[in-house]
Structure formats: C-alpha cells, structure tokens
Amino acid sequence: MPVATPSRLVRLDALRGFALVGILAVNVWAFATGYYGSGIADPAGDPVVQFAVSMFVETKFYLLFSFLFGYSFTLQMDAAARADAAFRPRMLRRHLGLAVIGVAHAVLLFPGDILTTYAVLGLVLLALRDISARRAVWLAIGLLLASGVLWTLLGVLDLLTPTPVDGAAAAARVAETVAAYQGTPATVVAEHLRQLPSTLALVVFVQAPSALAMFLLGFAAGKRQVLAEPWRHRTLWTWLLRAGLPIGLVGAAFYAYLTVHHPGSGAQTLAIGVTLLTAPLLTGGYVAALLRLFETRAATVFAPVGRVALSNYILQSVILSLVFTAYGLGLVGKLPYAAVAGLVVVIYAIQLALSALWLRSHRYGPLEWLLRAVTTGARPAAARPPALRP
C-alpha cells in the first residue's frame, strides 16, 4: 500500500522537483554555448553528451512540467472553493503575475523562458475549466496528433526540397552571441532581446500546442485525482511502462540521432515531428516509473525542490548567467561539454539542499510567496510556525 499522502500532495511536488533537473539539463546549453539552436554543429561538441541530452531530456521535461501545471490548476480550483473566493479573478491575477515574472526572466536572464507561455496558455485552460475530463483528454490527443503530423509532413517536404544551411552566416551569428555574452550586462540584455522573436516563433509553432495538450491531460488527471490515488490507475501506469515507454524511447533515439548529426536540415525538421508524436509517451513512461519510485522515501528527497519550483527555476537561470555571461564569469563556449553536464549535477544538488533548508522555516519560496500574494490579493504568512517545523 502506498505511503499515506499528507494535505499537500507530495507526489506532485516530487514530480515537479524531478522535472526541474530535466529543465536545467536542457536550458544550460543556451548559456554554455553559442551553438545551441544555431542550426550548425559545435566543433567542440561532445556527441555522447549531446545524444544523451537530446534522447532522454530535450522535448520531454517541459511536457512533464506542463502536465503538472494542468494538474495544479485543479488544485487552485479547489483552493478557491475552500476559500469561497471567485476563481476567475484569482487566476487572472495569478497569470498576470506569472507573465510579469516571465517577461523579466526572458529579458534579463533567459530568452527561452516558459513562464510567459504558461501564463498565456493558462488563460485557454481557464476558459475551458468546465470541460469534462474525457473531453479534455480527447482534445489533448487531437492537439498532439495535429501538431506532430504537421511537423512530420513539413519534414518530409523539407527533405524533398532541401534548402542548404548558410554555414558562414550561422557561424557569424554564433560569434555575435558569444561576444555579447562575454561583453557587458547591457550586451547580454541586448542579445536576449535579439533572440526573443525567433524564440517566440519556436514557442508558438512547436512548444505551445504540446504544452496546451499536456495542460489538458494534467487537468483531466487532476479531476480524476490520479496522483492522489495512483494505485487506482495501475492499468494506465502499466500500459505507459510496457508500451508508451518503449515507443517513446524509439522516437527519442530517432530525434537525438538526427538532431546531433544533421542539425538545421530537413531531417531535423522531420525529427521534430517524430518527437512531438512520441515524446508525450516517453514523458508518461517517466511519470509511471517515478510514481513507483515515489512509493518509497525517495519522494521526500525531490518534494522540497518541487515545492519551491518557481524560485528554483529562476535561480537556475541566475546561476547559469553568473557562470556563463558577463553578469559573472563569462565562460560561454569555454567549458567542455562533460564539465557543463557535471555543473548541472552540482547546481541541482545545491538546490535540493537549499530547498529542504529553506522550507524548515518558510511556508513558500520567495517567488511562490509573491505569486500567492498576487493570486489571493492578501499578504500570506511567510514563516512556518515552530510547531510545524521538523
């Protein structure tokens, strides 16, 4: 029998905490090398590290985060009902606060910010909040299939009518990015602003449909209390482990090979289509495996970092900016890929320890406290009462 769940859903926090290491393992490359997303290969790249990241992490963990966002939406609904408060105004304030944090994050630290996207897509979920769990699932499947099939067809078309990559122009853009990150804080911000239009296009046409689909799946799971009572859904978890996980791994290997060895080509466009179709299955397999792991005390290791996920997400960008840009050491393009991977482990280990320490005396993370204040329109208590401390 699974471990009893306290008032706050430990499994949800633990999943969110685990998702953070995947987010970090992807985002770090946008800081560490100017070649990330450039369409050309990094001469100093490490194919083994790149393949591992592309196969097991890239395009998977933002889906997990999106699923958990949708699940948490149902908890927000329950919280508003318990407080006898109007739900729509609360969520409008919450999404506005999230958008403000996201815009500041994108401009100052990381143009690949996901918070603003979540704030906007969250309004769609708000409009659909009366939808049934079954309809939410079918709408999500439709979005995933439509997006994946479209990109797969675009990839096939790209292969049939290939357009050569302008390597010289791409290399020049890489050099400009590196120079900006090694310049001054002002050039760092200017580079972020330059990247924002292309990043926005990537989000709108690639990530947003899948993120919204995972919102809907998380929303349906929240309505059915899937994470609160996972043992009641063993058929689903078994299917995800025995079928979803293998299919997802095959798609991930296909995506990783083409992304690493054929960047910027029609083959990579095809790979995007394939991963949009198969990555949700791999993400589901991760969830199924983690829920089994979290029936042990392992959940208590990841839960604290997940409880303050928003603060930790921003903190990751702060640390990476201090390491790789002119805000600090300016080491962009200077660390071997293996060292960057090691840095991910170190940063996450620090966050695990700091999060547990912080929550000994605080109810919320700093940004969680701020967002809660905006959501409720009241000043929440920050300190944890002595009786509740371990």
UniProtKB/TrEMBL annotation:
Residues 221-377 form the DUF418 domain. It comes from the Bacteria. Keywords: Membrane, Transmembrane, Transmembrane helix. Signal peptide: none annotated. The chain crosses the membrane at residues 17-36, 48-71, 92-108, 114-131, 138-157, 200-219, 239-258, 270-291, 312-331, 337-359. Pfam families: DUF418. PANTHER family: INNER MEMBRANE PROTEIN. This is DUF418 domain-containing protein. It comes from Actinokineospora fastidiosa.
